[in-house]
Amino acid sequence: MNINLTLIGQSISFIFFVWFCLKFIWPPIINALERRKKTIADGLAAGEKGHHELELAKQRFVEMVKEAKAKAVDIINQAQKRHDEIVDEAKDDARTEGNRILAAARAEIDQERQQVREELRQQVTLLAVAGAEQILMREVDQNVHKEVLDKISADL
Amino acid sequence: MVSEHEALTASSYIKHHLQNLTYGKLPDGTWGIAQSIEEAKQMGFWAIHLDTMFFSIGLGLLFIITFRLAARQATSGVPGGLQNFIEWIVEFINSMVHDGFSGKNNLVAPIALTLFVWILLLNLMDLIPVDWIPHIAAVIGVPYMKIVPSNDPNATFGMSLSVFALVLYYSIKVKGIGGFAAELGLQPFSPKNIFLKILFIPVNFLLEFVNLVAKPLSHSLRLFGNMYAGEMIFILIAIMYSANFALGAFGGLLQLGWAIFHVLIVLLQAFIFMVLTIVYLDMAHQEHH
Fold this sequence. Notes:
- The structure holds 2 protein chains of 2 kinds.
- Chain A has helices spanning 6-136, 146-155.
- Chain A is mainly alpha-helical.
- Chain A has one domain.
- The longest helix of chain A is centred in the middle third of the chain and has 131 residues, at 6-136.
- Chain A is rod-shaped.
- The N and C termini of chain A lie far apart (172 Å).
- The relative contact order of chain A is 0.03.
- Chain B has one domain (50-139, 149-285).
- Chain B has 9 helices and 3 strands, in the order H-E-E-H-E-H-H-H-H-H-H-H.
- The longest helix of chain B is centred in the C-terminal third of the chain and has 47 residues, at 194-240.
- Mean pLDDT of chain B is 87; it is low at 1-6.
- The interface between A and B is large, with 33 and 53 residues.
């Protein structure tokens, strides 16, 4: 309980401890705390930014899907239209082609008929001449009776 | 515990526990450790309490080594266990200084940290049962051992007077000698009349001087008194162990209860000492208008 040199010893050790704390303990810890505070603040800001960007990306995504859907509908409509056109065209083509073939066939038939008629006429002429020979019992001179024969041939 | 040449009475037991291990000039002219309370008293000022110095410096080293370890590893990354704990204390002190100290001085926070942790460690020695270490000391031939340094007014005055010196230094540095003198002489009574003003200077000075001197006194005696009283109660409880079994068991219960309550005092006194230091230094930095 006596006041003695211990007082001074205590003061010196106290001053030493404070000096040590001031030089080697306080600054590094406080600096680390400050730096960590900054790091955390930066991290939070970055997180906030990322979140914001995610929102934007989501919006963009929705817009893109909408656009794509509209485009798809467009394309389907166009395709439908084109399809109808092609079918119509094909129908037209087929119709004309059919007409053409029909016309050609008709022409051929006409031609053949003409030919057959010609042949028939000649044969009928020959037959008529032969018939006349039988009737007349004499030979018909082609050249003499040419006028008559031509007249018959023309009538047929 | 008592040494052989003292009878085991309650009073001698208490006195023995309250005696520091003193090194100084013995009556026969040689230097050595005082073997009795009277010898220690006769040594006067030129003696030193070895136990107080040993435990306070030891605990101070424990403080700076632990904190230095944490400070060296301090990174802005994820803190480990020790670093986390140290940082928690540092942040607590930092916020206290931030709230309580309005000036700009890098010294205040380290002082507050040192005082808080050091005093807390010194006070915690109080929770070690009162007979353990003195008994071990007695076995190895050391006559006295008082293990709670904050129980020694030398220790508390050593700290409070150092703080007081800083208060005086910063008062003069910030306000100038004139400003500091004006603070002492022109307050709290400051009449408009110049003649009355001069007349009031002695009165003001008396009031302010007492106020000033009371600061380190109350600062250190508050801590000392609390710890001394706490230790005294532990000693009184310890006396019960030497009575019969029932009283001893009751004493054990009492000691547990008081120790739990004392943890509060230990923390509170360390905290108060630190806060008062911050407040005094803050007052030294403030200019009155």
